[in-house]
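In this notebook, the sequence line spells out the residues, with the fold written below as integer tokens. This is how one looks.
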Amino acid sequence: MPNALPVLAETDVATFRTAMGRFPTGVTLLTQGSGPDTAIITLNSLTSVSLDPLLLSVSVKADGRMRPRVERHGSFAVSVLAAWHRELGGEFARPDRPEGEAAMLRCGAVTGATGNAVIPDAVSAFECHLRAVHPAGDHAVLIGEVVAVHGGSPGAAPLVFHHGRFTTLPERAA
């Protein structure tokens, strides 16, 4: 076992992305609004922050379309995608992603308690009131207080992002 960690290369964006790509993450859809005012983006930055109060965080582009919407409306929802949502994960990661009623229909979304779209067949979903926004380089970390949790499809295999692509976890032994 070596005494020191090897440095892969000069620390730059490409090296950082490659190294972070080795860390598998879940895939979620962050939603704000519903019906004709629906905006949805794919994220893999969902983190549990606190149990008292119930807080979670997500990270969005600071100069993107979603951050000002969430700040203006003060709420958002996060749906954890199942393996069968692979196409949705890719579709809502693109700049030309659907919006409004088309986005709701594409996801089979329903309006949740906070007025934000929720994916009913997701592994789980969280509806949040915005509690804080923290600038973080070219992103902003949104802290949400969870006001509703939906079980969705709890036995479903989650969609995972690893090595720059979508994958799934292996089946659990019975």
